[in-house]
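Translate sequence into structure tokens.
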Amino acid sequence: MSNDVNDVDEAGWAVEPGDEMAPTMEIVGSVLKFHREAAGITPAEFGAAMGYGEDMIRKMERGTRIPKVQFLYRADEFLNAKGAIKVLKKHVEEARYPKKVVALKNTEARAVELLMYSNHNIQGLLQTPEYARALFEMTQPVLSPDVVEREVAARMARKAIFEREPAPTLSFVQEQVTLERPYGGKMVLRRQLEHLLEVGQLRNVTLQVMPTDLAENAGTQGLIQVLKFPDGTALGRSDGAFNGRPVSSLRELRILELRYGMIRAQALPPRESQAFIKQMLGRL
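Result follows.
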């Protein structure tokens, strides 16, 4: 395997033309270059010591590739930068993910309760890396491999919500069809369904399935997301309400919560939903 392939896998993500984090990455790159030159080491020597090719080191120093946090720690130690490179960790972590995903992750981190109804795909917080990758690889126009991996990493970072203390209350309702579409292939779907069973066992999680053969469904207007915060405020969104924009007024939130309450009442109870998912696994 060539160094270039290894670099793509291990050295981070490319900075896309016009990307808003480009100026920040240029600063990170200049700091790396300053300490490398101060140590009297060439890009080739630095790359060899770090396990990367010379070209990848030059890309990071130009700010056209986002280094991974582990690289910063190793570089700081190798170049004896005394923390000047490690301190860039915060900027690199923020740059790794699209700004809208960082904002969503921070919003979810404040929530004490989440209500999520999904009718097209598995909800993002419930996705496995393989399932998420399959979704991004189907995006049109086609995303570059770097962008796909960056989006997958960002989505997986949101899963930190499951490890929070105190744990938030999480409620998910998935349409049956979302559990049947074999995005990425049957093995990817199998692992995704197994993951749903695992998440459904968490004490702070309620996971329900909305069967396709029901004659009534309050979710016909699309996905619903409601996040409630410690101060009593909330934020909600639905594809089929208020032009799809986020809402925070009590009147608008009551409408979303009413719809979600109806959806939960119509869906299979959690225990029956677990059994339903197990049956689906048995048919794969």
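Note: The two ends are 34 Å apart (CA to CA).
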